[in-house]
Amino acid sequence: MERKNAWLVRGAAEKAAVTALCEDYKTYLSASKTERESLANAVALAREAGYISLKEAQEKGSLACGGKVYETLMGKILALFRIGRKPMTEGMNILGAHIDSPRLDLKQNPLYEDKDMVLLDTHYYGGIKKYQWVTIPLALHGVAVKKDGTVVNIVIGEDPADPVVGITDLLVHLSAKQMDKKASVVIEGEDLNILIGSEKVYEEEGEEENRKSSVVKNIKDILLEKYGIEEEDFLSAEIEAVPAGPARDFGLDRSMILGYGHDDRICAYTSLRAMLETEDTEKTAVCLLVDKEEIGSVGATGMHSRFFENVTAEIMALTGEYSELALRRALANARMLSSDVSAAFDPNYPSVNEPKNTAYFGRGLVFNKYTGSRGKGGSNDASAEYVAVVRRIMDDAGVCWQTSELGRVDEGGGGTIAYIAGNYGMEVVDAGIAVLSMHSPCEIASKIDIYEAVKGYKAFLENA
Ligand code: MN
Ligand code: MN
User: Fold this and answer.
1) Gap from CA of 274 to ligand 1 centroid (Å)
2) How far away, in angstroms, is 263 Cα from ligand 1 center?
3) Architecture of 6-101+260-463 per CATH?
4) Which part of the chain is CATH 2.30.250.10?
């Protein structure tokens, strides 16, 4: 039952194609450090491929077979549709993935000065090992929205000429007590404070001995001069501290990619890529990139939102198929690959996996019939019939693929967006790409697995 290694299957003939795809992915990942950036870059690629916005499609008045449309909400959730030959009531083939990643969000009142240093207070987002986020260069990405609605885009720390920021750790010489603590509290959430300044300036004109001075004044001046934002604008901002720097080739053989946010932009990008490269399908093809997966898929831009249902209704209105019943049928008859990263086997930590049911680097696209924890809790658990359909599609298309569970029974676990799509009655199975060091600032993925994923997703859109 051991699965084939895709490097051996592809051989030299396809090496150039693997490299080219992964160069494109690295470019996307390096420029997509937040859900907003991931979405904006995805929309740009979609428009290049001829997709138009829902509003533009509505102005044209109708949609026919081959029509390519996208819709977004709040800049954080995206659905793309390519209309197939069959009516949508016969079902859609959906590729889903999420574009939010674990990070440190600035608090609403983040700025403070302490002993001639200025820091930003954060509230972490998603599941992180907090000790991994200290002593690494961080960049600040996001938006600050002024009271008049002006959106100020912020990216500090990515251009090699930019400064970076970061969180300090205690020197080892004075860490006797810290080193005895449990890893979960060795760095505490409230202590994830980002150092951003230390130059002291006078706050006012006048006689030297009476003049007030501070470090925070200088930082406030820089924020105002460079970005036009005042301290109060942090109240209506979404600024994320993320690992600084681009994604890079990893390994002496360049067979892997190291980067921040593979979870789940690696599945988002490969799903999008397959969507944009797939033409002329029987069923309507859909690519759905969602936000908030890392905190429970909640809110208007998470998978629990009515967004996808609403957009499907709008699309069906344009194809002339819409009725409440037709919408229900289109959703219930859909088939979906809910793609999220899998835990790759790690030779440093073999004990957490059960080797027969573990994802391995190089063995291609991963399918998880179920995820969950403590007895499959929270899992979608795809039907055997549907898994058989997916097996056939992958094998017919010559895709390298494997199956996996998230660790040994009762070792831990986790969930995805799959069960939420399943609520419509559609067939859903978890799929995705294996990564090492998941949720760390430096996740690692295999290039050949990225290649197999695009192949698999295209085969699904064409044949499911
Ligand atoms: Mn994920
Ligand atoms: Mn995750």
Assistant:
1) 19
2) 5
3) 3-Layer(aba) Sandwich (3.40)
4) 103-243
Walk along the chain (464 residues) and give the pLDDT tens digit of each residue: 789 999 999 999 999 999 999 999 999 999 999 999 999 999 999 999 999 999 999 999 999 999 999 999 999 999 999 999 999 999 999 999 999 999 999 999 999 999 999 999 999 999 999 999 999 999 999 999 999 999 999 999 999 999 999 999 999 999 999 999 999 999 999 999 999 999 999 988 777 777 899 999 999 999 999 999 999 999 999 999 999 999 999 999 999 999 999 999 999 999 999 999 998 899 999 999 999 999 999 999 999 999 999 999 999 999 999 999 999 999 999 999 999 999 999 999 999 999 999 999 999 999 999 988 999 998 999 999 999 999 999 999 999 999 999 899 988 888 899 999 999 999 999 999 999 999 999 999 999 999 999 999 999 999 99
Q: What are phi and psi of 205, to 5 degrees?
A: -75, 160
CATH of domain 103-243: 2.30.250.10
Burial of 413 (0-12, 13-18, 19+ CB in 10 A): buried
Sequence-ordered strand ranges (E) for 35-172:
52-53, 68-73, 77-82, 92-98, 103-114, 117-125, 138-145, 151-156
| Cβ count near 118 (within 10 Å) | 21
All CATH 3.40.630.10 domain ranges in the chain, comma separated: 6-101+260-463
Q: Determine the distance separating the centroid of ligand 1 and the alpha carbon of 177, expressed in angstroms.
A: 35
Sequence-distant (6+) residues with CB within 8 A of 32 are: 38, 41, 99, 261, 265
430 alpha carbon – ligand 1 mean position (Å)? 11
> Tokens standing for 201?
């300036």
> Closest ligand to 303 CA?
1
Gap from CA of 47 to ligand 1 centroid (Å): 26
> Which residue is it, tokens 């197999």?
452
Strands 103-114 and 237-243: antiparallel
Hey, what are 450's tokens? 């990225």
CB burial string 367-394: b at 16+ within 10 A, e below: bbbbbbbeeeeebbbbeeebeebbeebb
Nearest ligand (C-alpha, residue 266): 1
- Which ligand approaches the C-alpha of residue 417 most closely? 1
Q: How many CB atoms lie within 10 A of CB 105?
A: 17
